[in-house]
Design a protein that fits this description.
By secondary structure, the chain is α+β, with helices and mostly antiparallel strands. Strands 1, 2, 3, 4, 5, 6, 7, 8, 9 and 10 form a ten-stranded mixed β-sheet that branches.
């Protein structure tokens, strides 16, 4: 029997996390101690299925267990919304974070970025708004609550990115408080916006050999030390060695400031501790930061992180980790099958072929995209 007929499409999609490693993590954390019915593995399968199908309520998720095929996958014949709610609040988010980071390592073991992208990482955060009445623990502004997802992305290709590491905080938390969590590897260049500026941290990075490219704040105090030559036909208008900070709080290490323009003609003042690159390479490196904005937009459109299945801190965090796990599982399938289809298309086919043999999903993915329409053509001109 072919190995692709042994698993359903859903079972194959989940296979990277249904491992002995996951079982060992659950045992070590004693996550299922005294649990008789809804253990952590079927809980994760239920909520990944809900993520995939876009379920909006716990009762809807509970009704999914009426499917005989799903019952066989879960090892359960029924579950209640109340049991789902209790488990969702009880699971430790750190366990799901471990699952996410394990999947990221597996992805990197199978695929690496081009050499010029390999040592670049992008850092930024996105805010998810919450209802103040329901989520008072996440109080943000006078009339709303919110959380922040701080994320570090790595390149998998020229433009494709993957969330490599993430932290979840209250939206009130300043971005720079997460720098030490996300910036930790010498020899890597981290790209981030001015919300993460911290001169004390920058001095520490210079000492440790950690590189960065960021944008200066409008009120930054700078002392020009040396003006560098700009190549002909460069998009950069100024390249200067500077010292940053006021007299009371000045950086010990020198930095380099590159002045350029964005796509709308606004001036950008970029600061970095990379002295080995050309000014245009610094400018292009910062522009690659747009990849994280694109990812955040995709994440909010296609991952279920706006409507939450619980109101507690843990329930919200767990749903975000599950969304990121679902993304990584789809990306793993795309990399293993080496297909050109978009992740969203793979997800659509999976939802339709959920309980069919994996061979059917694989066959669909292997079909090359076809375009029947010739599209709009320019009318021939008459001489």
């Amino acid at each position: 029997m072919d190995k692709h007929t042994l698993l359903s499409s859903f079972g194959k999609w989940l296979s990277p996390i249904c491992t002995r490693t996951f079982t060992d993590w659950v045992s070590e954390t004693r996550q299922d101690k005294y649990v008789k019915k809804l253990t952590t593995e079927p809980y994760l399968k239920l909520f990944l299925h809900a993520q995939l199908q876009g379920r909006e309520g716990l009762r809807h998720i509970a009704d999914d267990v009426l499917s005989k095929a799903f019952q066989q996958e879960l090892g359960l014949t029924s579950i209640s919304a109340a049991q789902l709610s209790r488990k969702h609040k009880q699971v430790n988010p750190e366990l799901l974070q471990q699952v996410f980071e394990h999947l990221v390592k597996r992805i990197f073991s199978k695929h690496r970025a081009p050499a010029h992208r390999k040592k670049i990482k992008i850092i930024d955060s996105t805010t998810v708004a919450l209802c103040l009445q329901k989520y008072q623990w996440a109080h943000f502004r006078k009339t709303k609550s919110g959380i922040k997802i701080h994320m570090r992305l790595s390149f998998l290709g020229e433009h494709d990115v993957i969330p490599e590491k993430a932290t979840i905080t209250n939206a009130k938390k300043n971005d720079r408080t997460q720098l030490d969590e996300l910036v930790d590897e010498p020899g890597i260049t981290y790209i981030f916006d001015r919300g993460y500026i911290d001169y004390t941290a920058f001095d520490r990075y210079c000492k440790k050999g950690i590189f960065f490219v960021t944008r200066l704040k409008n009120n930054a105090c700078i002392e020009p030390l040396e003006f560098l030559e700009i190549p002909a036909a460069s998009s950069v208008s100024e390249d200067v060695i500077i010292r940053v900070g006021s007299e009371q709080k000045k950086m010990k290490h020198k930095l380099r400031m590159v002045q350029t323009e964005d796509s709308q003609g606004n001036l950008l003042f970029l600061v970095t501790n990379r002295f080995d690159l050309t000014c245009d390479e610094i400018s292009d490196m910062y522009r690659s930061r747009w990849a994280i904005e694109t990812f955040f937009k995709w994440m909010k459109q296609h991952l279920r992180i706006k409507h939450f299945h619980g109101q507690s801190d843990r329930a919200v965090q767990n749903q975000i980790w599950i969304a990121l796990i679902a993304f990584c599982l789809l990306l793993l399938v795309k990399l293993e099958t080496k297909v050109d289809h978009k992740l969203l298309q793979l997800s659509r086919w999976l939802t339709k072929l959920l309980w069919q043999p994996y061979a059917e999903w694989l066959q669909r993915m292997k079909q090359k995209p076809s375009r029947k329409s010739l599209g709009r053509r320019r009318k021939p001109t008459v001489d």
